[in-house]
Design a protein that fits this description.
The longest helix is centred in the middle third of the chain and has 23 residues. With 259 residues, the chain is mostly helical. It contains 13 helices and no strands. 45% of the residues are buried. It is 79% helix and 0% strand. Helix 12 runs antiparallel to helix 13. The mean pLDDT is 90.
């Protein structure tokens, strides 16, 4: 039954249209219910919550409640718990709710280490580091800001090690994180170069939802600098990609936020 979970994760990672991914998830969940495979079913329910939220079929509150119920239904030490937690983290990152994402890291700090598949583990590392970077500038004290940034840099070094070992599919993660590090350091040219590299490499490997995320992060950075032309370019690029993916809610939310 774990093969169904793996297949759905691969479909999620490979930028399959959300409408197709929803149909695949619902069919797989139905089969798992029939076979009374509750743990695997709950893992896929977590993916379905994300897909339905992105397609604007459920509200933010309904999605949050769904994750709460799933997490209550499984043992905190189980792999299912960490799968659910990671998909909840995906929602927070996709909708740029950085502070909301922090409890996913602090209350289940071992999540990224619970996945045997290298790509899933690397994804967990990337999401964790990105959240720490995005929240570091708003931390309550200098020490808290430094701790979050250092946690992110430590994870970035691990991703760099994976790239050095030939795992090129995580290279775009590294460039997104490096861009955000340079944003914090106010190194304009380095941030710009890394955002550009992130979008190019994500497209090369077919991770177009990550390309959309890189464009969105670049948009926010350029907008904060008052560089509206570049901000608009990245905004339109991310909108196009999210629309192609079928992420209706994301398109609407991004449009409201940046306009």
């Amino acid at each position: 039954m774990g093969l169904l979970s793996l297949r759905c994760y691969q479909s999620w990672s490979a930028y399959h249209p959300l409408v197709d991914l929803q149909a695949e998830l619902e069919a797989s969940i139905s089969a798992l219910v029939h076979l009374n495979q509750r743990s695997h079913e709950r893992s896929l329910q977590a993916y379905l919550l994300v897909v339905r939220r992105l397609r604007n079929l459920t509200s933010k509150d309904e999605t949050s409640l769904g994750f709460i119920e799933l997490l209550k239904a499984v043992e905190p030490t189980s792999n299912v718990f960490h799968t659910v937690n990671m998909m909840q983290l995906e929602v927070f990152v996709l909708f740029q709710d950085w502070e909301g994402a922090l409890p996913c890291l602090t209350e289940a700090p071992d999540t990224r280490n619970r996945f045997l598949a290298m790509h899933a583990s690397a994804r967990g590392m990337f999401l964790e580091a990105l959240v720490y970077l995005k929240t570091s500038s708003h931390a309550s004290s200098w020490l808290a800001r430094r701790k979050r940034k250092m946690k992110a840099i430590k994870t970035l070094q691990k991703l760099h090690g994976l790239v050095e070992q030939g795992n090129d599919y995580v290279r775009h993660y590294m460039h997104i994180l490096m861009a955000e590090c340079y944003v914090l350091e106010k190194n304009v040219s380095a941030a710009q170069n890394n955002f550009k590299a992130a979008t190019s490499i994500a497209e090369l490997h077919g991770f177009l939802h990550d390309k959309a995320l890189a464009h969105e992060l670049a948009c926010a950075w350029y907008k904060a600098q008052g560089k509206d032309d570049w901000a608009n370019f990245h905004f339109e690029s991310s909108q196009k990609l999210y629309t192609e993916w079928g992420a209706t809610s994301k398109v609407e939310t991004e449009h409201i936020y940046y306009n």
